[in-house]
Amino acid sequence: SQTIHQWPATLVQPVGSPLSLECTVEGTSNPNLYWYRQAAGRGLQLLFYSVGIGQISSEVPQNLSASRPQDRQFILSSKKLLLSDSGFYLCAWGQGHGYTFGSGTRLTVV
Amino acid sequence: QKEVEQNSGPLSVPEGAIASLNCTYSDRGSQSFFWYRQYSGKSPELIMSIYSNGDKEDGRFTAQLNKASQYVSLLIRDSQPSDSATYLCALTTTGNQFYFGTGTSLTVIP
């Protein structure tokens, strides 16, 4: 069966510091991968999606970036975090029959 | 107009009652519809999918789809306090884009 791993679970980072969140999927090949952010009390905002290695599409202009160095690995990064980057970050994979989410990373920028 | 609209609630029902959650959408060609449950501080979990008009039952959950009226609903029978969560409606549009609603908060009162 397919599983998705996301870490770390929680992160507190100072403004201006870098960020790296990692997501890996097991049990499937060439999955479509997604990064979402959910601000407190808000809906899901699609940040990036990838349909293959090295293929990244950005939905929202921001100081975040994403990379897909391997088929089942998706990384979300930032060189300098802003206060507004705080939120719940969710990695997901999907093949058209609904998305499966990772457990999420709660990021607090202080 | 948003692709997916949900009443944010909160919706409160007594334990044992039927909870009714509704969702409308704008793309008449949307094909696939999903309901996710999200507990506070956790990631969304897929609980139901429906692809054709009518009802689909799974235990205490029934998803209803009416493409002519462009709405999809989720009924939860014999509501339990453990059903208290935010319920997200999602769909796939004709352009194969995946959209989430902002969610309806449900509280089941013991």
Summarize the helices and strands and which ones pair or pack.
The complex is a heterodimer of chains A (110) and B (110).
Chain A: E1 3-7, E2 10-13, E3 19-26, E4 32-38, E5 44-52, E6 55-58, E7 64-70, E8 73-78, E9 87-94, E10 99-101, E11 105-109
Parallel strand pairs in A: 2-11
Antiparallel strand pairs in A: 1-3, 3-8, 4-5, 4-9, 5-6, 7-8, 9-10, 9-11
Chain B: E1 4-6, E2 11-14, E3 19-25, E4 32-38, E5 45-50, E6 54-58, E7 61-66, E8 71-76, E9 85-92, E10 98-100, E11 104-109
Parallel strand pairs in B: 2-11
Antiparallel strand pairs in B: 1-3, 3-8, 4-5, 4-9, 6-7, 7-8, 9-10, 9-11
Description of the molecule:
The complex is a heterodimer of chains A (110) and B (110). Chain A has strands at residues 3-7, 10-13, 19-26, 32-38, 44-52, 55-58, 64-70, 73-78, 87-94, 99-101, 105-109. With 110 residues, chain A is an all-beta fold. In chain A, strands 2, 4, 5, 6, 9, 10 and 11 form a seven-stranded mixed sheet that branches. A four-stranded antiparallel sheet of chain A has the order 1-3-8-7, with no helix packed on it. In chain A, strand 4 and strand 5 form a beta hairpin. Chain B has 110 residues and is mostly beta strands. Chain B contains no helices and eleven strands. In chain B, strands 2, 4, 5, 9, 10 and 11 form a six-stranded mixed sheet that branches. The termini of chain B are far apart.
Give the gist of this structure.
The complex is a heterodimer of chains A (110) and B (110). With 110 residues, chain A is mostly beta strands.
- What overall form of chain B do the CA principal axes indicate? globular
DSSP strand tally of chain A: 11
The whole-number mean of residue pLDDT values of chain A reads 92
Strand content of chain B: over 45%
